Amino acid sequence: MGFEEATPIQMQAIPLGLNNKDIIGQAQTGTGKTAAFGIPLVEKINVHDSAVQAIVIAPTRELAIQVSEELYKIGYDKRTRVLPIYGGQDISRQIRALKKPPHIIVGTPGRLLDHIRRNTLRLDSVHTVVLDEADEMLNMGFIDDIEHILSNIPRERQTLLFSATMPGPIKSIAERFMKNPTHVRVKAKEVTVPNVQQYYLEVPEKQKFDVLTRLLDLQSPELAIVFGRTKRRVDELSEALNVRGYSAEGIHGDLSQAKRLSVLNKFKNGAIDVLVATDVAARGLDISGITHIYNFDVPQDPESYVHRIGRTGRAGKSGKAMTFITARERGILETIEHTTKRKMDRMRPPTLDEALVGKQKMTVEKICSVVETENLDQYKNFAAELLEKYDSVPLLAAAIKMLTKEPDTTPVKLTEEPPLPMKKEKSRNKRKLDLKNKRVGRKRSFHSARSTKGSASPK
């Protein structure tokens, strides 16, 4: 499995899980929570029992696929059968797979409920249920579906609930469907992305795309993800990047599963260099070799930020994360820094000349690579003739010029996204201040009225 040392959430949750305790795990992405519930889950599976014994409910098909892959690895030696089921996949194919019941099912709420209603999924042998990223399922409107699913599972079960935050509806589910759960919590400072260099750039909305393309030219990422806030933003960004000569495609929730997998395979195989994604579509992405993250739109909350930048800096390799903010979004930046207990370094937006230098450096690297690895015998006679006519420096300069494509400044138009509002905590503080000012104002008016009344001239 490649585990070297247990993470804080694993050290707390695994012993409880093995002892059949209900658990509320408050932890963000990047804490190792899948193994925290996966190891005790697999340990409890009876592989000789041909029945569904555990259900993991995940908010998106992307996360369902990732979790099922990790559970498959954990249970490989034990020959544990794991099946992901989610919307966008042919349901008849899933029904055929369910006729030889897997030991563990990882599914999205809507598709799980669909199978329950069709009576194609039997839950009478389920002894363990996991709710993964429960707050995300709340945000996506799945709470009613989750309650319906839990109501169809035997009461004598172990329930594990993992959520970055604990809003009221999630607490309500815990109270209704869990038995004396033990609460384990991983603080934000324990969410580690130590191998990621983190920067922010303050850029006006209308200049963000030019800055992005200059960064791509300057930094020459091997594989990069650009995060946009909306589906429209992802579509427009991927199209605009292609207009300027970059190899990019986008993923978001409206894509079919076949199209999404096609895009991801292209990205993994290097057929495209830049993947543009929404937060929801990127949930569960596990692709090695991602070197750069560009938060074109500032993330909605600190948890989304941690999830985004956690796509890079993996397996001991370093990564870079650049976050674009407008002047009105400084408060969001401060909230992220406060939650993650880490300051981002400010980065100056590169100029067009700096972008050109970046492309020239990339050309030089390619030339050096060809010199070191390719057979150049058939070109040496021409090279010798040129060296008789010209000095080597202008010759190489001409080669670099010919091989370096000038930064593309083709005009593109993106629909402007409004800046994110301040966090709720700040809004509450502002309301308190406004209320205080009103009270002071009323007091002043009262004293002013008394003063006026007292000094009024007699008639």
TrEMBL record:
Basic residues: compositionally biased ranges: 438-447
GO biological process, one term: response to cold
Catalyzed reactions: ATP + H2O = ADP + phosphate + H(+)
Keywords: ATP-binding, Cytoplasm, Helicase, Hydrolase, Nucleotide-binding, RNA-binding, Stress response
A Pfam family reported for this protein in Swiss-Prot or TrEMBL: Helicase_C
EC supergroup of this enzyme: hydrolase
Protein name: ATP-dependent RNA helicase CshA
Species per Swiss-Prot/TrEMBL record: Aeribacillus pallidus
High-level lineage: Bacteria, Bacillati, Bacillota, Bacilli, Bacillales
